[in-house]
Give the backbone structure.
Amino acid sequence: MKNLIALITAIAITTGINAQADGKKIVDKLCGCFQVDFRYAETFSPDPDYKYHNREETGGVAELALPIEVSDKKIVIQHLLIVGPKTVVKHWREEWTYENPVIWKYKDNRLWVKEILPAEQVKGKWTQTVWEVGDEPRYQGFSPFVELDGKIIWQNTTDAPLPRREYSVRSDYNILKRTNRLNITDSGYLHEQDNQKIIRAGGTDKLLVEEKGHNIYKRISEKECDAASEYWKKNSAYWGRVRKIWADYMATRSSISLKNKIDDKMLHEYLLALEKDYAAKKITEAAIDDRIAAEINRFIVDNEKSAAAIK
């Protein structure tokens, strides 16, 4: 893997890719209406007695990747799933920022710690930040876009909390060390993953099992995502308020710790309920920001001292 990364770095220097302008054009290709197939399979475990979980395959789901904020150095993409003729589910959000020195590193137990990187470490690189459905942090990674064997590739390895497909069915590990690799194609892109499922305890990591993932995004007619576009027109103002409240809070912190559930519900469930009430005009313009902040604050743990100890 180290040799591959070194090769990619060398090619990034020699292929003539303009890191900022061409990188932005590549990120633009991640936007649009796609048919998405999700495939995951556990591959190898150091424990000969480990019982492998079944492969997972979900196919034929339409997803709109909508650019909601665009500038030369930043592109914000909101993902929206279409699960029925008129049923839309707000999905994850990703942000792409050029030469971004701020990284929120995931530690464990829903704790993220902010690090400021030296400028030379992120020079010529794009950072992908992935946010949860409730717009709380999930993971970040940075890398240059490179051309390799005629393909445009972005690759990064970073620690992350468990995704929903895992935490909803198991609790035998607590860190997903993700190697994310994006292969851009004419018909869409492949999000390829080489993941390690890690048990982190007492300052040490133990590998439980490795996993291969293929998320295949195939571009389809924009009409297939009309329902998602309509949903966002109606609800984008609400989620813009949610993002701003999160951004204002994170700007003041060096670490963030969040509860997982309150009364057996996750944060996004409370925020989606507020979205419905706001759309139905059950909550006024004057009151909505306070209501959003109140729900978010219920999940926040004051962890500045504990985070300092973990560094």
Observations:
- The first strand starts at residue 32 and ends at 42.
